[in-house]
Amino acid sequence: MVHGQVLGARLAPCCRSLARAGALRSRAAAPVASTLPKAARHRAFGSTPRRFRERVSSREDDSTTAVNGAEPELNPAFADIAFAFDIDGVLYKGQEGIPGAREMLQKIRRQGLRYVFLTNGGGAHENAKVASLAKRLGLENPEVVLKDRVIQSHTPMRSWDQDIKEKGTVLVTASQPERARQLAREYGFKRVVTPADLLAANGHIYPFAHLRDSLHKEFSPLPDGKSAAAITDPYSRDIPSDALQIDQILVWNDPRDWSLDIQVIHDLLVSHRGYLGTISTLNGDRSLADHGWQQDGQPALWISNLDLVWKTEYPVNRFGTGAFLHALEGVWAAVTEGAAPLRYHALGKPSRHTYAYAHERLLHYDADVPEAQRAGRRQKRRPLRRVYMVGDNPESDIRGANEFAPEDGTKWESILVRTGVFQPTRAEPEPRYKPTVIVDDVVDAVVWALQNEGADVSREWLLSK
């Protein structure tokens, strides 16, 4: 797997920088914590207790946090810490909010704590995720508590180089392709193609009628008058001027028609320079690296997240985008006879791209909250000492936080909750990627973190107004 290797996309300066890019208090540890090995709970923590005094809000109404809508007063004990919350399995399961999650978020907002929501979900605008989260949690003030804090798996694409967005042609596949196309355009991509567009332009691409009248019934003409049927000899290099060329393949979230999507992605990965209908003469050349596969200017393949499973109300975990990737890898291994791994880039957790993007958002947090935007405040950088990642999936949330080491020296600590993907079994009593601590739920996670910072807080306090 070579998802960390950049194969073709040129990223904007901030995104390029992303790609480069103590002991607990003497009293007993918080009772919410699990009994992980002592070393796992005590690594890299400061030992000085920090004074804490709750700020008394001028109003008790949850829709505001200070007089005249001013930004909440920052509790000095929390000035250099922040939280990153996963969403599915941490704040809600399916359609039901985790008990206490709403009150917890309102409380830390009133304390002026920095936080973002870091989810591998996607396929819709970030504002749609805000609305969905607000509905599940029963929040009446999402503009204050949630807005401009949601980072989805594909959100870092907003920072891609304008040349890619304006001059390149991208193929987007997703659970709802038409919605994904509109979101890609909102991100700035000018030429966006879906598998349904290709199927409508050349019915021979996929010789089955499956889903043509449902999932693939919405389509658009190919950009710039290009054709999906211009090439008839796949080995000819006399490329017609109207032949469609794809520069990037973006798998945004949970594709629905795996068969069509895998077929089209395969066709582009074995093509000559991304021209649909061609076949590279380098494929299978044993004198070349990876026997010539993906060595002929094929489009870069981007996978929005690697989550094999995610948590819903159903008792057994459900497959996610990572399952689609494994299916694609299996087909690729058969096509190449195992001679070359599938080359792709990964976004979402545990990708460094995503954690670096979230870290930058937290460092420049003031400019992301509505009050600062209304005030026209210039973006400023507020240093961090520690960020607590609260997640339910050891393979993405915990692994990503454990492996991320930002250049500014901020320590990311991982907290695993028991309300989501990870459930201990006889075969796997502990997670493969060890968190700093395991707690029952997101409320206990925040209590544990604040206690670790020296604050004398409790679950009852966190859930109070």
From TrEMBL:
It comes from Akanthomyces muscarius (Entomopathogenic fungus). GO terms for biological process: glycerophospholipid biosynthetic process. It comes from the Eukaryota. Signal peptide: none annotated. Pfam families: Hydrolase_6 (PF13344), Hydrolase_like (PF13242). One of its GO terms (cellular component) is mitochondrion. Residues 43-70 are annotated as: Disordered. This is HAD-superfamily hydrolase.
